[in-house]
Amino acid sequence: MLRLAQENPRWGHRRIQGELARLGHHIAHSTVWRILHEAGIDPAPRRTGPTWREFLTAQAQGVIAADFLHLDTMLGKRLYALVFLEHGTRRLHVTGVTTHPTWEWTTQQARNLAADLGHRTQSLRFLLRDRDGKYGRAFDSVFLADDLRIIKSAPQAPRMNAHCERVIGTIRRELLDHILITGEAHARHVLKTYEHHYNQHRPHQARDQLPPDARQHPAAVHDLDTRRLQRTRVLGGLINEYRHAA
What we know:
Elements: H1 2-7, H2 13-22, H3 29-38, H4 52-58, E1 63-72, E2 78-86, E3 92-98, H5 103-117, E4 126-129, H6 137-144, E5 149-152, H7 162-174, H8 184-200, E6 229-234, E7 239-244
Parallel strand pairs: 1-4, 4-5
Antiparallel strand pairs: 1-2, 2-3, 6-7
Helix pairs in contact: 2-3, 5-6
């Protein structure tokens, strides 16, 4: 009985009673409930529902997450960028940079993203965001119009949006910690350039070292002596990309 409960977390005590009866064990449902209760197994469906990590893993192809990245210019001016990350492909979107992220500005970024995604929104089911006041009802309505469900992370629980938090950390370590930002236009150029590198070239462990926009690895190279590596300097050499020369 306990094995049935552990292996089938969505089964209630009556469903377990029915399965036992099918196997020739005729036990009252009240007895099944008592045994499960004494074993510390809660009633379904709350008994062992998926953890947050299990939910994100199972729904990865349908989740897109949003978060704000803040950065300071060389003169101490605070800027904000809105970052989106598709969980399934790890595709990064930096939709804009501003000094004042108002509801109107944030809503426009959501519209821009929806236009960029196009038909890909059909595969998305959830928008994950925190409870930051810079979002508004109009922002959510852009995604609700495409039949996405809005999931808000719990207060002071950054791990609920861990993938987006992680990519923001990556942007800081690989980019912003090594470059002086002069203003909005410069920040927009730098972040867009890095977005292209991230999506087109940077390998990701979660995708078997494939970049987000790649579908398969190139053919294996067996004779390294005949294939010369070509380096492309990105952002003045801050980032290097390597390819085989034609």
